[in-house]
Design a protein that fits this description.
By secondary structure, this protein is an alpha+beta fold. Helices cover about 30% and strands about 20% of the residues. α15 crosses α21 and α18 packs antiparallel against α19. Pfam families: DUF6829.
Length: about 1150
């Protein structure tokens, strides 16, 4: 409603619309935007396809959704003219609006911008129009408005418009600064601006840059930049930041901010370095921490900055412009926005690539084309595209085409077929898997070369993947079974503004005979296709395993001999085949198959891997077959590392085929995912093979060569045959003690052995093997037949040093268990450097074969390990050399701090104080999940965090503590075997839960081994093999009658396992409180003990006796407990009294009525189980 204001020509407005508009303006979440109520937005068809941000505007109406539209969002008017909401917002300015006049004469082309800023908006617009500049493009997308351009040229004088032979150019002088500084690890980083809001269209970080106005020098602007942007005191820049190099260059580019006017950039490039990042004056630059920071300029505009690794900072637009210019392709001839689209598809979306072939720059694109076929009334038909409708415009194909789609460079065409059928026809993956056959026989790859209309002068190579698919079942959305025409709509985002458009495609089923001339090769494929036999899909082949040896005959009950003695009785090593493998391992004609057959025939101990039986099984949690496959994989790793200068490196990365020949990137079988093949290629090309070779040389297995690969004295490179044979024997037997049935018990005459007393089974598989090698070597004929010197080397790897490399590189063990024995033999001068390197070779090859697919190559390193982690592992070999001059704890602490400082991304300062050792060790254990594990550690319940902080800081060494966290003195310390595996399995999904599980294991273990001052130098091993392959959710799953316990198996060992205290027959298994503790994994494991209804630890784990009950029989109690909807059994006081052996306390609940007004007692499920 309106009203004329008395005495004035103005008109006033009032009413609900005005009030609502005022409230919308006052409560708008950001300035200069269009703010709409939901009802208004729904009623205006103009806004149907524009992207809005949702705002719950409580100032307008309670619980009502409101929307706001960014001012640079482009709107399509009915007439086709593009306008901008920004223009409407600025229409109230005093300057006249712009228009496009006709250019009337050539004389107009000589006009210059008058000095002094006397040109009005209309004159400026008319002057630009005289050069044929399209004024409608200003103020849209990234383009400036005409007012902004005029202000830049006339008032601010930041740029000049120059007529050069009838063409209008914009000249802009800028200084571009590459401000560099080195972080704590020595990596050079560069300061870049983080794009935000409207600038996100650029999708790349920008270096520090400043425009140089007329009348000023670039040096003056550089000084002002640091004063204005980073609040640096005037005149102090030279003391803090030095200019290393500077140059001037001219660049001709099309700037998206000034459409239609080519821009000449006179660029002063200056590389600058921070002299000392720790200076306090540089705090406004985010130094020395190098964290992201925000600045506020004089106009109040916020800018976010980050320090980017210098090697990663690239200006893709500049690179592309230079590349095109070098090949005489002018970007000024491209259609508007085409250059930005090319930057996007080459560098960001990866939808195309550029390559130079015979001096010609080519753009490479990939297209997948699918001929979708079915029988309609017993006549073969194919699906063809008829037309597309976008923004009300219909485009009819002159020739009907099959469905097709552009795909990313490097994307497998098979994946693209699935994506095409989903995106273009709406067929989900489940329907495709069951009802669509992809015929590999019809696949055809063709190439077409043509000049692109969008990029004049640039030739485009289209690689077209063409294939036939057949539908087995009708789908009503596809017009079947009648064969009706149909349409499908999908949402597509525009590249420039991100607006969502609806694309509607019309399809038609056509008889095959009508289109057969277009594709003659498809007739046989479609008509004669055998639907009954689905063709082999294009997925990757199943990983291959080698045949396993036969399962050995196990000893009968009552057999006096040990299992291993019984199984190996009468077995002999085939020394001819064993020496052949060691001698010929580097022969060019000695294949991997020859090597495998020699080893399988030579070493009888390999049959022991199939001796898993009974409840023991395999301690690692894997199957016996897995352990055999892993052992063969480790043998193959030895074979390949001995042949790195032949075919070993390629086989290490790609494996061998069914014919046992070395595979490569071009091998057609086995089929592998493209992502996997890429990883294998990267590993082959980027791995530092010299480090592997150096270890083999240091171990005395390979001859020394110079940098050019030559042997001193000339000739062929040789190897030590005896040393190689010793490594093969060690590899064949090193994991046999993972089979629980083979574990030896310590004999009276050998007790104590590494902490194990007489009669105790040795739970550690490495120590168990060491026991046999020292005291009963004849049980293993392959070891017993080695030369004495090689026996000493093998024995040294298992018991001589008591050192496990995996414990160090994964921070799995405390320093006492890790280094004590090793340091003692170094101090006694008993260790040979070649024997230490011999152990390192064993450790490397053992881990290389960790995946149970020997013929696939060393997948643990190639596919599972980042190269930087592998390099860190190889670099860790030198750590043990420090034991000669430092204590075990000092060496260990130094190693942990080195891993922290070299971690990528950077983790900041090395922690100190309570919990610092826990954080250092957890980061190494998590291996690639450092940030998530540190965040979860800080969010742990206080009790759990205290347990981890205290227990992980125990050293297991007398009179030694960590410098950064010296709080833990008493012992014993704990070694949680497979704790890194548990974290690595769960850190990507539930790191907090994994840490809580680890804390619970340590907490209950401490109850079994209370702290004692005289045990400070001891270490207890806690084996969590049963947990390491499980996700936290699976660990926490509660099954009636089952729970997790930690079971003390010896004075230095405990094992975590799942038990069932209440069997299906109702019989209860005995529980031993002296050696067992229940682990509370689940929702209550972090609840304070005082809040628990029944605390199992406080009732001493009494066994409930349910016999001789009068009113409540044993069967009734068990039946009630098994009801899925019940969590407890209710009974009155008299009934509870009949359970004579029932432990105290019971949970009393008086809120529920009972007979004779007596209290109602509840018996928990958990209490009865125990």
């Amino acid at each position: 409603e309106s009203i004329a204001i008395p005495g004035s020509k103005q008109v006033g407005y009032f009413g609900p619309s005005v009030s609502t508009a005022r409230r919308l303006a006052e409560t708008s979440p950001k300035d200069r935007c269009v703010h709409l109520l939901a009802a208004t937005k729904d009623e205006l068809c103009l806004f149907e396809r524009l992207p809005f941000s949702v705002w719950w505007n409580t100032g307008c109406a309670p619980a009502t959704e409101a929307y706001y539209l960014d001012p640079w969002t482009e709107v399509l008017h009915e007439g086709g003219r593009r306008a901008s909401i920004m223009d409407a917002a600025r229409s109230t300015t005093s300057r006249p609006s712009t228009f496009v006049p006709a250019r009337t004469s050539a004389a107009a082309g000589t006009k210059k911008v008058p000095s002094g800023g006397t040109m009005t908006d209309k004159e400026f617009a008319r002057w630009l129009g005289s050069y044929g500049i399209d004024l409608q493009r200003f103020g849209t997308g990234q383009a400036k408005t005409l007012t902004e351009l005029m202000t830049e040229v006339q008032d601010e004088r930041k740029s000049r418009l120059v007529d050069r032979t009838g063409v209008l150019e914009r000249h802009l002088v800028i200084v571009r600064m590459s401000l560099c500084a080195k972080d704590e690890s020595g990596v050079e980083r560069i300061l870049t601006k983080v794009p935000r809001g409207r600038e996100k269209v650029q999708l790349r970080n920008q270096r520090l840059a400043q425009v140089v106005p007329e009348g000023r020098t670039w040096q003056e602007v550089l000084e002002d930049c640091f004063v204005d942007k980073f609040m640096m005191e005037p005149g102090t820049r030279k003391d803090l930041i030095s200019v290393v190099t500077e140059c001037v260059k001219e660049e001709r580019l099309v700037s998206p901010s000034v459409p239609g006017i080519p821009t000449i950039y006179i660029v002063h490039e200056a590389k600058m370095e921070v002299i000392d990042p720790k200076r306090e004056e540089l705090a406004n630059l985010g130094l020395p921490s190098m964290e992201n920071f925000t600045t506020l300029d004089r106009s109040g505009k916020k800018t976010q900055w980050c320090w980017t690794p210098y090697s990663e900072e690239r200006d893709h637009a500049d690179d592309l412009a230079r590349l095109l210019q070098d090949h005489n392709i002018s970007i000024h001839e491209f259609e508007p926005g085409a250059f930005e689209d090319l930057v996007d598809e080459v560098y960001l979306s990866k939808n195309s690539s550029l390559a130079v072939k015979k001096g010609t720059l080519l753009r490479n694109c990939q297209i997948v084309k699918v001929w979708l076929s079915t029988d309609i009334v017993n006549i073969p038909h194919v699906l063809m595209t008829v037309s597309k409708v976008l923004r009300g415009r219909c485009s009819l194909d002159k020739t009907l085409r099959p469905i097709s789609m552009r795909i990313r460079i490097g994307q497998p065409w098979q994946d693209a077929v699935t994506l095409l059928l989903t995106d273009r026809l709406g067929l989900d993956c489940a329907f495709q898997k069951e009802n669509i056959i992809l015929d590999q026989c019809t696949y055809r790859l063709s190439e077409e070369i043509e000049l692109s209309r969008s990029y004049p002068g640039l030739k485009t190579v289209y690689r077209i993947h063409e294939v036939t698919c057949r539908i087995l079942a009708t789908h009503p959305a596809l017009g079947l079974p009648e064969g009706n025409d149909f349409a499908f709509s999908r949402v597509k985002k525009t590249k420039d503004s991100g607006i969502e458009d609806t694309v509607t495609t019309h399809f038609q089923w056509m008889p095959l005979s009508d289109v057969i001339s277009k594709r003659e090769s498809c007739q046989k494929d479609l008509v004669d296709y055998l639907v009954e036999a689905k063709k082999d899909q294009a997925g990757p082949d199943v990983k291959r395993r080698v045949p396993t040896p036969p399962t050995p005959q196990m000893p009968p009950d009552g057999e006096a001999k040990s299992v291993i003695e019984y199984l190996m009785e009468g077995k002999k090593t085939n020394w001819d085949r064993a020496w052949s493998a060691a001698r010929r391992i580097r022969d060019a004609d000695y294949t991997c198959r020859d090597f495998y057959e020699d080893c399988a025939t030579a070493f009888p101990e390999l049959s022991l891997y199939m001796a898993a039986f009974g409840d023991g099984g395999v301690s690692s949690g894997r199957s016996a077959d897995d352990e055999y496959q892993r052992t063969v994989g480790a043998l193959f790793a030895v074979y390949w590392l001995m042949r790195l200068d032949l075919d070993g490196a390629r086989a290490f990365a790609f494996g061998v085929g069914e014919d046992w020949k070395t595979l490569s990137v071009t091998s057609s079988r086995p089929r592998r995912d493209q992502a996997e093949v890429k990883k294998r290629v990267v590993f082959l090309e980027s791995a530092n093979w010299e480090l592997f070779d150096d270890v083999m040389v240091a171990a005395g297995m390979l001859d020394v060569i110079d940098r050019k690969g030559r042997v001193s004295g000339g000739g062929k490179r040789g190897h030590n045959v005896e040393r190689t044979l010793a490594m093969l024997v060690l590899t064949a037997i090193h994991d046999i003690m993972k089979l629980q049935a083979l574990l030896p018990s310590v004999a009276e005459r050998h007790a104590p052995f590494c902490g194990y007393q007489a009669g105790e089974a040795i739970g550690d598989h490495d120590l168990a093997l060491a026991y046999v090698l020292e005291h009963r070597p004849r049980l293993l004929p392959s070891f017993a037949g080695l030369p004495e010197a090689q026996q000493r080397s093998v024995r040294f790897t298992q018991s001589g040093m008591e050192y496990n490399m995996g414990w160090l590189v994964q921070a799995e063990a405390p320093p006492g268990a890790l280094f004590r024995k090793f340091k003692s033999i170094i101090a006694a001068g008993e260790v040979k450097p070649s024997d230490v390197s011999f152990y390192f070779v064993h450790w490397l090859t053992d881990l290389a074969g960790a995946e149970p697919y020997p013929q696939e190559g060393c997948e643990k390193y190639v596919l599972k390990f980042p190269l930087k982690v592998l390099k860190a592992f190889l670099s860790s070999f030198s750590v043990v050399q420090e034991l000669s001059s430092k204590t075990e704890t000092e060496v260990y602490e130094g190693y942990l701090q080195w891993r922290w400082t070299t971690s990528q991304p950077s983790l900041g300062e090395v922690p100190s104080g309570a919990g610092s050792v826990a954080r250092l060790r957890l980061v190494v254990m998590a291996q690639g999940h450092s940030e998530s594990v540190l965040d979860s550690f800080s969010r742990l319940q206080p009790l759990d965090r205290e347990v981890l902080s205290t227990e992980l800081a125990r050293t297991g060494c007398s009179d030694q503590t960590f410098v950064c966290d010296p709080g833990a003195f008493a012992g014993p310390a704990f070694l949680v075997y497979y704790a890194p595996a548990l974290l690595q399995k769960n850190c990507a999904v539930d790191p907090l839960g994994a840490l809580a599980v680890l804390a619970e294991v340590l907490r209950r273990a401490r109850e079994l081994w209370p702290l004692q001052d005289d045990s400070v130098g001891e270490t207890v091993t806690l084996r969590i093999d049963a947990l390491k392959e499980l996700e936290v959710e699976a660990i926490q799953e509660a099954t009636f009658g089952q729970c997790w316990i930690i079971d003390k198996t010896s004075g230095v060992d405990a094992v975590v396992r799942k038990v069932n205290f209440l069997g299906t027959d109702g019989d209860q298994k005995a529980f031993t409180p002296e050696s067992q503790r229940i682990l509370r994994f689940g929702e209550d494991m972090n609840v304070d003990e005082g809040t628990l209804a029944i605390e199992l630890n406080r009732i001493s784990y009494h066994r409930v006796t349910l016999t001789d009950t009068q009113r409540l029989s044993r069967e009734e109690v068990l039946g009630a407990l098994r009801q899925p909807s019940r969590t407890s059994v209710a009974m009155d006081e008299e009934e509870a009294g009949h359970l004579a052996d029932f432990p105290e306390p019971l949970l009393v609940d008086t809120s529920l009525p009972a007979q004779n007004n007596e209290g109602c007692y509840f018996c928990s499920k958990w209490l009865v189980m125990c």
